User: Fold Oxidoreductase from Acidipropionibacterium acidipropionici.
Amino acid sequence: MPSTTKSRRPTGWSPAGYTTIRGTTSGIEMLSSLPRLWWRNECAPKTEWLKFTRRELPDEEGVYTSLMDEKSVSPILSLPGRENIGLGRHWHGLSVMLWVLNGIVYVTLLFATGLWRRIIPTSWDVFGEAWESLKTYLSLDVPDISHFQPYDSLQMLGYTFVIFVLAPFLMLTGVAMSPAIRNRFPRLIKLLGGHQGARSLHFICMVLFAGFIVVHVSLVFLVHREHNVIHMVFGGGEVTSARAAQALVIVVVTIVAVVVFWIALSYWSLADRARAQRFTAAFTEIGRKIFLNRLRPLGAANTVDTDADVSKFHWTNGLPPTEEESTVWVKARDNNWEGLTITVRDDINDVEKVLSVDDLKKLPRHSYVATHTCMQGWSATSRWTGVRLTDVMEVLGPRPEGARYLLAESYGLAQKMYDNRPREPFYACIDLDTMAEATSILAYERNGHEIEDYLGGPARTRVESNHGYKHVKWISRLMWIHDFADYGDGRGGTHEDSALQAFNGRI
Assistant:
């Protein structure tokens, strides 16, 4: 039997429980931006295994964007709600960082104090005893208090599974959706079923974890309630009705306070979204700097992703420029790209050159297979062919002194601006280390043919270590710049400006 050591029994409203709930609500915001789950990377219409929308997807590519599929969820249910995927991702990242930190401290103390024996079974008898406990619960009966010393066998197995199996797998499937991880450890991601496999498994793990918390907290009040609440709040002592009532009030008030704070956090975020972006992105960048920024794509060493993985269907986020948006692009498209130019510029020294698509094709050719992932959740695998960004910018000569970023600008406009001002030309900035990666290219072919109009033709940037919002379609200009704070709203890109995403798109 477990140790008879008396101690407080953890509830679902510990720091871990709170960050789990906050992570779940921000996860709801992320899921609502693309309320569908697939097992296959291509995310083809009518192949979802689960969806939370009645909308039906058209079979034709390029006519329906992922932004059109977004659903608005109440701030009471999601963090922050109301179609704010950027802020939802920031809050999710911050919650996960706190959740992981809490887990590391908890497990460390668990083994340092020897209290692991309360949770981890030390005898095979635990399975038989757990089965008997399960039958008791299923019969709607209550196990005798003597079985809880401090936990019964069924609880021990539940805690062991959640702490040492479910939680680590939740972490693994979470980081597996990062393009930085996918391009550095492609074999691991393929083992998980690709991006969509990891996304679906992550969702299932979230449901199991949330279900565990609900059942766990419910049983606190249904099974030996007075004993439970007294030991949780006071750590033990005499079990009396007066002390149980006092402990119960403290528990209920704590739960209500947490829920109120969680909802208030949503409304605080929505009251000034730019402020919320500055606050949350600053904290989540700490995790990216510690871990993800150190990872570089394998490039040519990646033999895992092959042409056999190429998707038959490819989503898009954004539609090609219209006549009102760019007469230059529309006219060139109608004339087989005749006359279309791409400006390569040194914005520090006011020097530039103009290239045609044919000029691009004369530069060293680079080709690879990669999976594109949108921050909303969809993915598609293609073979991309083009010119490395470093080779394109070399037409201007050596990199100018003071250049710290590359800015790519589009002939197309942003889909919408978060403050409802007129739409502006789409742009994105990347740092020089990211630009130097072998899979950062200006692509002009996909799967052996010219890039389709809706996917960015005639040329688009590919930055495989980052999510799709750092990839610019319908490219019009590439520029050396000193500081992205001098362009747009100063956040480093249109999605950072209009959707409040993070400058660093590695996760």
Summary: The chain has two domains: 15-52+65-290, 301-498. The two ends are 44 Å apart (CA to CA). The longest strand covers residues 379-388.
